[in-house]
Design goal:
The protein starts with a strand and ends with a strand. By secondary structure, the protein is an alpha+beta fold. The protein contains 4 helices and 7 strands; from the N terminus they run βααβββαβαββ. It is globular, with a radius of gyration of 14 Å. The longest helix is centred in the middle third of the chain and has 15 residues.
Length: 161
C-alpha cells in the first residue's frame, strides 16, 4: 500500500471517480438500472458528500485515481445508522488491502460521527466485495433499509460498530 494515498474527495475528482465507479460496474456486469451506474449523484460526489456526517475518500496511485469509498446518512435510515457507499477500486488497485483500508476508515469516521451501525447495499455480481463485507462482520438482511433508490441492489447487509 506504500504507493497509494487515501485522501478526502475534492471537486476536481468528480469526473474521474464517476468513471472508476461506472467502469467497475461494467467490468462485473452490474451496470443495470437501480444502481449507482444510473444515479445522477455519481457525477457529483464532492457536492453530495458535503452533507453533514457524510465523508468520501479517494484512493490514488502514481498515475491518478484508482478508487474510493465513503459513508452517507441515507434518508430513511435510523438516526444511529449510516450507509457504506460507492466503494470501488480499479483492477490494478485490488488485492493490495486498499478495500480493507477504506472500510476501516469508513468505520472509524462513522463512529466519530456518532453512528452505531453501518448499512450497505450491493449486488451478487460484485464477487470480490461481498466476501470482504462478510469478513468485516456484515450480516445479511431480508430487505432494504432507508431510501437509497437503488432497487437494483439485491443484497443488503448491516454491521454493528
Amino acid at each position: 500500500m506504500e504507493d497509494y494515498k487515501i485522501r478526502p474527495i475534492q471537486p476536481e475528482d468528480n469526473k474521474t471517480i464517476a468513471s472508476v465507479i461506472r467502469d467497475t460496474l461494467v467490468e462485473f456486469g452490474a451496470n443495470h438500472p437501480g444502481t449507482v451506474f444510473f444515479d445522477p449523484t455519481t457525477d457529483h460526489l464532492f457536492e453530495l458528500f458535503r452533507k453533514e456526517k457524510a465523508a468520501y475518500w479517494i484512493v490514488e496511485d502514481g498515475t491518478g485515481i484508482v478508487g474510493g469509498g465513503g459513508i452517507f446518512p441515507t434518508k430513511g435510515l435510523p438516526a444511529d445508522t449510516c450507509e457504506l457507499v460507492k466503494l470501488y477500486l480499479l483492477p490494478r488497485a485490488r488485492g493490495k488491502g486498499l478495500g480493507k483500508k477504506l472500510i476501516e476508515i469508513c468505520h472509524q469516521e462513522a463512529k466519530k460521527n456518532g453512528f452505531r451501525k453501518i448499512y450497505l447495499e450491493t449486488m451478487p455480481e460484485l464477487t470480490i466485495a461481498v466476501p470482504l463485507y462478510e469478513k468485516f462482520g456484515y450480516q445479511y438482511l431480508d430487505g432494504p433499509l432507508g431510501e437509497s433508490g437503488h432497487f437494483g441492489c439485491a443484497i443488503q447487509m448491516l454491521k454493528t460498530l
